[in-house]
Structures are given as structure tokens and as C-alpha cells.
Amino acid sequence: MNVILETMQNQLKSLTLTEAAKVVPTIIQQAESEDWSYIQFLQKLLGHEQERREEKQMEKRLKWAAFPFQKTLQEFDLNEQQSLSRKQFTQLSELNWLDQMFNLILLGPPGVGKTHLAIGLGLEAIYKGYKVAFISMGELIHTLKTEEITRRSQARLKRIREANLVVIDDLMFMAMDSKEANLFFHLINELYNSASIILTSNKGPSDWGDLIGDPAITTAILDRIAHRSEIVHLNGDSYRMKHRTSIFGEKTVQK
Ligand code: ADP
Ligand code: MG
Q1: For ligand 1, atom 11, which residue shows the shortest CA distance?
Q2: Which of 86, 132, 169, 217 is the most exposed place for a label (fewest CB within 10 A)?
Q3: Ligand 1 center to 116 CA (angstroms)
Q4: What atom in ligand 1 is closest to the CA of residue 169?
Q5: By alpha-carbon position, which residue is closest to atom 27 of ligand 1?
């Protein structure tokens, strides 16, 4: 019996049903002791293969996304962010805009939850099977500039180009020279027809021109991003400041 079982496990492996191969002995035992029908047995075995595969795919997508931290939409407290209505929040969470390749521009001062919201939407997209890539603007420029020289940058950009949703965090935090602006424009151009982009920034599009420098490139970038886009203004006090932990006492919640 052991030899047959081993042969069968190898067959399953060579058919790349590796997860089924791992559990088949246990499932056979269970089937025998619980008197399963053939159909039940096969269902259990194939079901296990499929579930584990999906889990592994999701783990991979999560790793590729390279989120700096994981905060979900469920953890986003709407009462703390009055500028977004529950209806708008639900619409964003449903991700139909992703299929329609809409872009999302999240604007607002530091600490209002732009990055949290972007990551929460990114996580939701990963749960639903989309590929997501997160990168800060600073990192993105560096990665684009080193694409020719480092494998790491090449790999990172490959993930970005293959993603259905690309989050570019803290846009225009730094001034760009014309070479950088050109590289950025080319990437946006590539993504334009293949992905949705979430941009977060503490400056509105009218200020971007000053930071990108070249007005022609700024217009071209804005044109592509704004074509199908929704701008969300997040206002209010910094969540960090309100919920900061004090040196002198317990957590303080200030109004
Ligand atoms: P921003 O990117 O706008 O500077 P973050 O998204 O980094 O701000 O938010 C700062 C911190 O405050 C994070 O830890 C985030 O989880 C938390 N935070 C901000 N807004 C909310 C909110 N509405 N509900 C729950 N946590 C929030
Ligand atoms: Mg942020």
C-alpha cells in the first residue's frame, strides 16, 4: 500500500498537484474511517489543492505589493474622516473603478489617512485577486533611475508594470529634474492603459507644475492621470496627533 501511495504522490506532484500530493495520505485515511463516497473523496482532495493554491497566490501578491504597513479598510474609522461619506467609502471599497481603470487622487495634509486608505484599498484588491504594487514617489524615482543597473529595481518595476493597481505614495514630495520627470512620465504612460493608479499627495495638482519643473511634461502627466480620475480631499486634523501617545501618560485622545 505504501508503495502505491508513494507512486501516486509522485504522480500528483508531476501533474503539479503538489498540495494534493502532500495531503493525500491523510485524506485517504479520513475517507476510510469516515466512510466517504468516491465523490466526497475527490471533492475534498481537489478542493484542498485549489484552496491552498489560491492562498499561496494571495501570499505572493501580498509580498509583491510591498506595502510599508498593513492597514485594512475595516480599520479605517469613517467617523474620524468626515470628508468622506459612507456612500463614497463603500463605492471605493467595491473596486468597480478598478475594472474601469479609474485613477484615484487622495489629497490632504499629513496624518489624515491617505496612505492608510490607499493600502486598505490595495489589500481589498489583493483579496479580490488583483495584482497591486505600492511605492513611494521617492523610491519610485530612485528605482526608475537605477533600472538599467540593478536587478532589484528591474524586479520592482516589473511588478509595477504588471500590476492592476499601482499606489504612488507622497507624490511631489521632492522636486524633480527633467530626466526624472521624463522617466516618471514614461511610466505613467505605460500604466495608462493597463492599470489604475492611486496617488497620494499633500499638494493639489495645481502645485505639481512647480515641483515637476517642466510645464510640458507636467501637463502630459496630469492629462493621463486626470483623464479618468476621482479626486478625494481628506481633511481634518492629523489622526496621528489626535491619537498620539504621550510621554507623560497613557494614550491621549485630543479634540
Ligand atoms: P497620511 O498618509 O495622510 O499622512 P496615514 O494614512 O499615514 O496618513 O495615517 C497616519 C496614521 O493614522 C496611520 O497609523 C493610520 O492608520 C491612522 N489613521 C489615519 N486616519 C485614520 C482613520 N480615519 N481611521 C483609523 N486610522 C486612521
Ligand atoms: Mg502618507
Answers
A1: 240
A2: 86
A3: 5
A4: 2
A5: 113
Ligand 1 proximity of 152 Cβ (cutoff 6 Å): no
- Please give the number of the atom of ligand 1 that sits closest to the Cα of 202: 3
pLDDT at 235: 85
pLDDT of residue 255: 47
Query: In 216-225, which positions are buried (b, 16+ CB within 10 angstroms) versus exposed (e)?
Result: ebbebbbebb
Q: So what's the architecture of 73-241 in CATH? A: 3-Layer(aba) Sandwich (3.40)
Query: Judging by beta carbons within 10 Å of its beta carbon (0-12, 13-18, 19+), is residue 41 exposed, middle or buried?
Result: middle
pLDDT value, residue 236? 75
pLDDT of residue 1: 60
**Mean pLDDT per 10-residue segment, the chain (255 residues):** 90 97 96 97 97 96 97 94 91 95 94 96 97 96 96 97 97 80 93 95 83 81 87 83 68 50
Sequence spans of domains, the chain: 2-63, 73-241
